[in-house]
Amino acid sequence: MSEEPKRKGGNPNMRKGAPSVNPRGKASGTRDKISKALLTDMECAWELYGIKALREMAASDPSGFVKAYISLLPKEVKVDAAENMTEEQLLTRIRELAINLGVESSLLLAGALSADETKHG
Predict the structure, then answer these.
(1) For residue range 41-51, what is the model confidence (pLDDT) as tens digits?
(2) Exposed end of the chain (fewer CB within 10 Å): N or C?
(3) Alpha carbon 69 to chain centroid distance?
């Protein structure tokens, strides 16, 4: 007899080829309801604690603050016309994009943007 390989994690009652232990699956829309509720709760928390919580986190946990900040940035930015642009045109475009994305603070910190160039400045 051959032994089935041991499974790591998951439901130990599940066997390949066996009938499902929950043939109907999860109720439709369950994940959407949970996601919507979480976003609503986060919005309420942001209205109450938003900028204060960010400032406190930046002071008490700078590493976590940076990780949270970076996780919100786009993973990829496609730039097509960069080959034909001068360095000054590229910097101008980067400033515009940062302002439109609401991440101009990173350029302020790097000294690549002045406060009067921001939406909030």
Answers:
(1) 989 999 999 88
(2) N
(3) 8
Q: Which residues of 18-47 are buried (b: 16+ CB within 10 A; e: fewer)?
A: eeeeeeeeeeeeeeeeeeeeeeeeeeeeee
Nearest to 88 by CA among 112, 116, 119, 118: 112
Distance CA 63, CA 53 (A): 15
Cut 0.90: pTM above it: no
3-class DSSP assignment, residue 13: coil
58 contacts: CB under 8 Å, gap ≥ 6: 65
Residue type at 90 in one-letter notation: L
Give the model's pLDDT for residue 88. Answer: 86
User: With contact defined as beta carbons under 8 Å apart, do 104 and 118 qualify?
Assistant: yes
